[in-house]
Amino acid sequence: MAELQARFDNLETSAQSLWRYPLPAGKDISIGRRSQTDLDVPDWNRSDWVVDDPRVSGRHVTMSWDGTILRVRRRLEPADRPAINPVFYKGKTQDDFQMVIGESFTIGSTTFTLQEPQAAGTGSAGDLSEQGGGLTRTIAREELRVSAFLDAKTPLMALAELPEIIRTTRDDIQLEEKLLDIILKGLPLGEFAGFVSMDPKAGVDGRAAILRSRQRGLTGDLFRVSNRLVRHAMHNVIESVLYIWDKKSEGSSKFSMTMTPGTDWAICTPLDERPNQNRAMYVAGRVPRNIINEEQLKRDTEFLDYQKFINLASELFCTMRDLFRKEKQNIQIRKFLPRAMVVLLDSQNLEEKLKEREGEVTALFCDLRGSSQFAQDNASLMDGWSRMRVAIDLMTNQIYTKNGIIGGLQGDAAVGFWGWPESKAEQIDHAVEAALGIRNDFMRSNVLKQVMFGCGIGLAHGPAVVGGLGTYHNFKLDAYGTTMNLASRLESLTKVYGVQILVNEAIAQRLNKSDPEQKRGRLRSMGKVKPAGMTIRVPIFELMPKIEDSLPGEETVNYNMWEAGMRAFVAGQWDVAQKRFNTFVQGLFDERRTAEKAAQFFIEYIARHNNKPPANWDGTIEMDAK
């Protein structure tokens, strides 16, 4: 086994960032500036091992170790976004090279050295003092929590920087670096502070990896942590352990603890109280006076404060790390939430707003036409999905930008609604704008024209239950009730009537009131209908775009003739209705006549009933299929 050491020398701040990892054989390892938990960057730009060097790309190189030779390759893909800065090996830029133990390569201000592994140490790790003649003190985490600082001035001055760290830090790397700086400021006798790990399954052969570290000045030498101390603190006692070396026994064969020159003591504190956890905080430094026996160690207060401070720092780190990760997760989750929900997440009454309530809801149901046939005619599912996604994006974008809630996708249909967190009169206007926006976007999209995709839209306004609905395993912001079902039925009826958008009477009344000059859209009556599977009988209307967004010559269409025919149809005067509908069609210009399907539906409906309305006719067409 070999180890890779990384040393980043920040010449501006005189800070030195160090880590060392054991190299696994036969496995690709990536190095860069962005970790695998940074979900805001693509996976090809995230790395297994991270260095906080601004001149290193998110993923800069990939390495593979075969037990003898380390191969290093600079990332060259995607071709338009390769790792920017060069990799220097033996003084020359290299994109793909092999190296052996003792050699180094450099990226930016970071030097990576392939080296022999640190000795693991031998013998039992039970009582450390028996192994090397040094002094050991283990203090339970709970005891450290309740004991008071005997000299709190220096630790508190260091902790005064925490508010700024919390305000400005947004990832684990920055948090680790800044917290290590705080530790060295709070511990005047500390020379080294770092995060270490050790595989709990490795036993006495386990080696500690330095994940990130700080040491005073640019010494150029990588600190050597004690494997035995790390193993004892992390996997045996799972508590904070202080060890003070007996320098007199350094030359003795019994001396089995690693001691870096210039340090006399080390404290290892696990970050987690659970067994088999594999991260700890490791701090080491010098002792200006002699503590030569257990009695002197018991009376010493400075190291007790050190252990308490390190324990406090480790718990603060875990808390802040978890908060940052939750915040990052929330950022990703918010992408799936409607705008109204995202705004409400920052409010104080989210729980109240999510309670189920009955209110006035405006529902939109938009179904994609032609996608099923396209999927059958094309062997590539991914190609079919990529085209369908364009259509779904157009649907959902209009709902989202018009302040609606995306209730979900049902196959190739999108469902949206307005009226949460509260009902407002203008929600109907927003829904109408969304429906017309979808219609116009479909008309303009070259991609959808190529595959002959179309859409049908149903809009309904009325009472519904709205809020956080569903079961424990499938909970979402949604609406439930007849209004939602009616919107779906109206969408289905657009195929029957040959129109793009159908709305119920409540929406028509609102439009007549808020847009009497029809600057937003136009309405024409489609009579009354009893949708399949429902008992209600509702007047319905076609929602048409404004003149400017319609076919050329639309301004000449005689819709008064249409409305006269519809009044006669509802009243049971079918002979009159048929004449009015025929006159309406004859008055259309050629292109518009071809597109007119609604008039043909009513003419054929009258003909199927031999020009006579059914008995007990109340003006309602009863549908027997959804």
Kindly provide the radius of gyration, computed on alpha-carbon positions and rounded to a whole number of angstroms: 36 Å
CATH fold type of the largest domain:
Alpha-Beta Plaits
Number of domains: 4
Quote the average pLDDT: 83
Q: Which regions are unreliable across 5 or more consecutive residues at pLDDT < 50?
A: 120-127, 249-257
Could you say which overall geometry the principal axes of the C-alpha atoms support?
elongated
CATH level 1 class label of the largest domain: Alpha Beta
Number of strands: 26
Strand arrangement in the largest pleated sheet: 8-7-10-11-1-2-14-13-17-16-15-12
Note down, in words, how this protein is organized.
- Helix 3 (153-159) runs antiparallel to helix 5 and helix 5 runs antiparallel to helix 8 (302-334).
- The two termini are 69 Å apart.
- This protein is an alpha+beta fold and 626 residues long.
- The relative contact order is 0.07.
- Mean pLDDT is 83; it is low at 120-127 and 249-257.
- The longest helix has 33 residues, at 302-334.
- It folds into four domains: 2-115, Tumour Suppressor Smad4 (Sandwich); 128-328, Beta-Lactamase, CATH 3.30.450.40; 339-550, Alpha-Beta Plaits, CATH 3.30.70; 554-621.
- The chain has a twelve-stranded antiparallel beta sheet. Strands 18, 19, 20, 21, 22, 23, 24, 25 and 26 form a nine-stranded mixed beta sheet that branches. It has a five-stranded mixed beta sheet with strand order 4-3-5-6-9, with no helix packed on it.
- Helix content is 35%, strand content 27%.
- The protein contains 20 helices and 26 strands.
